[in-house]
Amino acid sequence: MGLLSYIETRKDKNSLLWYNIKNLAAYCIPDRFYRQRLAEKLALAKKFDREEIEARVAYYNKLARPWSLAALENYANEQHLDKAQIRYEGVTKIKDFTLMRSYKPTACFFDTYRYARYFDGDETIAFRFGDVTTIPKVPEIVKSRPIGGNNENSVVLKLDKRRHFYFVKDRIAFCDKENMLIGRGAIHQRHRVRFYEKYFGHPLCDLGNVGGKNVPPEWNKGSLPIGEHLRYKFILCLEGNDVATNLKWVLSSNSAAVMPRPKYETWFMEGKLQPDRHYIAIKDDYSDLEEKLLYYIRHTDEALEIVKNAHAFVDRFREPDKEDLCSLLVLKKYFDLQTE
Description:
- By secondary structure, this protein is α/β, with parallel strands linked by helices.
- It folds into two domains: 3-164 and 319-339, no CATH class; 174-315, Glycogen Phosphorylase B (Rossmann fold, 3-Layer(aba) Sandwich).
- The protein has 15 helices and 13 strands.
- It has helices at 3-10, 16-27, 31-35, 38-42, 50-60, 69-79, 83-86, 106-116, 161-164, 190-199, 226-229, 247-251, 289-298, 300-315, 320-336, and strands at residues 67-68, 89-93, 124-128, 140-142, 145-146, 154-156, 178-185, 205-209, 232-236, 256-259, 264-265, 280-281, 338-339.
- Strand 9, helix 12 (247-251) and strand 10 (256-259) form a beta-alpha-beta unit.
- Helix 5 (50-60) packs across helix 15.
- The longest helix is centred in the C-terminal third of the chain and has 17 residues, at 320-336.
- It is globular and about 60 Å long.
- The chain starts with a helix and ends with a strand.
């Protein structure tokens, strides 16, 4: 068996090796091939519900009026970004948006370039890669943004999707799972520390730190594969630097996500999730966790309804053609509203 054949048999959507191979191969294809196919890709709109597509595009790209390209250029000049910082934030023409500039995270570059290359090389794009928790001063392409406030300048694309967009096939029914909350994560942020201070060792919780430093040694536990998480009825989904990375696959499982109301969102539209409809909502101070777990242990029918609604929410992100269409329309709107 050749190397590529072997990789093909072992690949999955969460494989970093396979992700990089696919993107590097696509990167070598001339941009003109993609530009010639833009009309064909946009014609896919006929396959889907028009109102749903329009609503999603309007949600990701909330720009409502023309905006000045000069504002982008002035902002770039004012920033005086050094070469290292330009890897994470910058303004560039698509034709100059190249892998040779070593953008970081590389996944954000690949996920942006995948769609930007469908447009004219002289179009100008501003980007801010990584975990973005503030709203840019000018319209920028971002992975994440605050849910609250006027976030119009935060134009969301499906970035770092290899890490964030992973769904599971859960073969364990909710009723056959253990009556406990499982939680594993890197306990860096103060809000995560507070949760562990409150509930580590609680009889309804199996918690463990798998990367955070300067925490009590008893918190340190080995990481658990996703399959082990699925043995539990409840899975903790606490936000980290921005969103909870595990939220997407948890909502696709037969377990129920447990978390406070989210403060940040990505392409997954976390701001559209409804408490106690798509996930089990707890207070920001976590004080009602035990009460909520016991309630849904006793009211299985309501927990099953939450799991069902979560699956329906996830389903909208499962069609590759629809995801491509929305991504291209978000960028098309971004470029169409630019003025000199």
